[in-house]
Amino acid sequence: MANLTINTTQHIQLEFKSAQVGSRVMAFFLDTLFKVCYIVLIIKLFDGFYLFENVMDSWSQMAIIIVLYAPVIFYTLFFEIVLQGFTPGKKIAKIRVIKIDGYQATIMDYAIRWIMNLVDIYSFSALIGLVSMSFSKKNQRLGDMLAGTAVIIYKERTDFSATIFQEVEDTYVPVYNQVLNLSDNDLRIIKDTYLLYKKNRDSRLLRKLVNKVTEVMSVDVKHYSNQEFIEVVLKDYNYLTARI
């Protein structure tokens, strides 16, 4: 299982584990199962309501088929865009598509992966995708290489909320108003890195995070320890953005 190092837009290194071929195959078959269930449901509806008997024109029939089967065709593209790198199958298999340059994947990135499914998965019984993943250091298929993405193992957070938001008491007094210069994505990166520090107790990682945050915000840590400073930044952001 390969480790994948991502340099974020804040120049912070995060390490992930690349998804194994078995996990990706399981996610693919789960998604295929969901699509088959949808097709079976559509066929049952056709038989039950005699739709084609009421539409005699062949072009009209073809138009109905295209519309009804569009969810199957665009299934992967739709869910990866809406769920930010997940499909229902990937969610169950606990894997996710991410950008390897630290930026948020775009619609175009997901579209490239979706189009390349024709080559990687649906040509030669998925041989091309399997071979490219076997020879890639980041377990990328051709679609991932072209889109600049990779598939990683995703673990749900249990000790923190999966989002950047947390409850802050109304009586709280914020310390750094400069946090409003940060974006939600900046805070997500800060929180993810802080969680990684709490898991591994890597003081060097925490120190690098604090140095970068103070640089971006143009503040100092005052009397706080490095850990207290990051916790204050997270609370300040949640408190202030909730009141904008």
UniProtKB/TrEMBL annotation:
<feature type="transmembrane region" description="Helical">
    <location>
        <begin position="63"/>
        <end position="86"/>
    </location>
</feature>
<keyword id="KW-0472">Membrane</keyword>
<dbReference type="GO" id="GO:0016020">
    <property type="term" value="C:membrane"/>
</dbReference>
<feature type="transmembrane region" description="Helical">
    <location>
        <begin position="114"/>
        <end position="135"/>
    </location>
</feature>
<dbReference type="Pfam" id="PF06271">
    <property type="entry name" value="RDD"/>
</dbReference>
<keyword id="KW-0812">Transmembrane</keyword>
<dbReference type="InterPro" id="IPR010432">
    <property type="entry name" value="RDD"/>
</dbReference>
<feature type="domain" description="RDD">
    <location>
        <begin position="19"/>
        <end position="148"/>
    </location>
</feature>
<protein>
    <submittedName>
        <fullName>RDD family protein</fullName>
    </submittedName>
</protein>
<feature type="transmembrane region" description="Helical">
    <location>
        <begin position="21"/>
        <end position="43"/>
    </location>
</feature>
<keyword id="KW-1133">Transmembrane helix</keyword>
